[in-house]
Amino acid sequence: MNGRAATVAGYLAGFALLFALWHLAATLLVRSALFPPPLPVLERAAALIADGILQEQVGASLRRILQGFLIGSAAGIPIGLAIGSFRPVRALLEPWTEFFRFIPAVAMITVAVIWFGIGEESKVFLIAYTTVFVVVIATAAGVGAVGRDKIRAAQCLGATRLQVFRLVALPATVPYILTGMRLAMANSFVTIVAAELVASNDGLGKMLWDARLFMQIEDIFVALVALGLLGFATDRLFRLAIRAFAGRFNPTM
């Protein structure tokens, strides 16, 4: 068995163990209608898939996550590079970063709805908001972690300041940027559920809210399982993309 097959087998075994423990907990320990075993949940998921409902909710949430994540990352990387590279910029922008990053995106939901309404813009804004500061901090930390000896060596070889940044600092910072983006992706899933709970016509958060109102317990667990599987799949795809396009900067991912 090659390495990739072994990895997939490990993933399948891990999920099998998770569902087995869930079944045992639901049938032997809890025994409550509020905590159904896996089989009824999977049957309900199959019914929702057959009706096209689950795909619609998943697609709506993923679209918002992708849009906000890309906007937040595109803004966070250059800001983080500037903060880490230039002391005047750090003195100017670091208070902003430290101030806003301690205001959670959930607390900004009301502001987002007031500014952008209940449409797509408010949800994309919240995802971008929860993404940007994680990426900024990780990127700035990466620039600060660049070894001084590497910079001095490049300068001794005649490299200009721009060349030092492009050929030494930036490649060394890429692993930190990618790590920050992975963490920000997890935050995006947390935030999109909260945003869709408050103001949305579709999405997994809306599905959770409606299921709670009508006490559709299986639907709640379908949404939770879908979120977990989507998060896992998204992280794996992110790692594959890193290996394909930036593996030489971060070979451990």
Write a structural description.
The protein has helices at 3-30, 38-51, 53-85, 87-100, 109-116, 120-144, 148-156, 161-198, 204-213, 217-246. By secondary structure, the chain is mainly α. It folds into 2 domains: 1-35; 36-246, MetI-like (MetI-like fold, Orthogonal Bundle). Helix 3 packs across helix 9 (204-213) and helix 5 crosses helix 6 (120-144). The chain starts with a helix and ends in a 7-residue tail after the last helix.
Fill in the keyword field for this structure:
mainly alpha, 253 residues, MetI-like, MetI-like fold, ABC transporter inner membrane protein, 10 helices, single chain, 2 domains, transport, MetI-like_sf, transmembrane helix, 83% helix
Helical content stands at over 70%
CATH superfamily of the largest domain: MetI-like
* β-strand number: 0
Q: What are the segments in which pLDDT stays under 50 over at least 5 consecutive residues?
A: none
The number of helical segments is: 10
Distance between the termini: 21 Å
From the 3D structure, determine the CATH topology of the largest domain.
Answer: MetI-like fold
Biggest β-sheet strands, sense, barrel:
none
Q: Output the helix-strand order.
A: HHHHHHHHHH
Function: Probably part of an ABC transporter complex. Probably responsible for the translocation of the substrate across the membrane.
Protein name: ABC transporter inner membrane protein
Family: Belongs to the binding-protein-dependent transport system permease family.
Membrane topology: Multi-pass membrane protein
